[in-house]
Fold this sequence. Notes:
This protein is α/β, with parallel strands linked by helices.
Amino acid sequence: xKEAGHTEQRRxxxxxxxxxxxxxxxxxxxxxxxxxxxVDSTLGIPEPFRGQGEIRLIVLGQDPxxxxxxxxxxxxxxxxxxxxxxxxxxxxxxxxxxxxNLDQHVYATNHLKNFFVEPPTQIEEIDVFEVFGPxxxxxxxxELASFPEAPVITLGQPLLGALVCxxxxxxxxxxxxxxxxxxxxxxxxxxxxxxxxxxxxxxxFPFPHQPSIRKQFYRDxxxxxxxxxxxxxxSPCE
Length: 238
């Protein structure tokens, strides 16, 4: 019991340290007039979600911004994983396929940790990912270093595009075996990103964000791609 208490204290300290570092980065961003007006500075930075057990999987989101400003104010935890909803259900389904438990084995955080005045893909003034990505990347790398063995799943194509490097594809579908003839069963192999192919320098498995899983291509292949992730990332440990 005493050791469990010490473990929980260490977790709380690491989470608090991450939040302090994130606030320091945000404070620096707000000093630049050409960037500050794109940030919703009325809101703080949502806390990462951390399971209560051994972290075996990292879920990486893009940023916390949703279109409705009133809805933004209710977001206190990354990906809203402290509440029930369609995104939590989606990630729970993925975890079940990996033989993991969302509330035990997952650490979830965002690449861009601050709120914006609009969702980044709707901001036309600058390429938000190109400008803000390098600002937040060092903190993200430091944050994930606490879980060196955990593979990463990314949510959504804009995030994937911001992280790939070299000749790696920025399209989620390419990792899920897409070909023009997929409807008739002509599909390619499943793939993932090797550490040398992404800025995180980690093993990364691209997933569509929850709204895109409604598309037939992803819906039909979700279970098989999840089984592929389990085989590549977890089978040697089982």
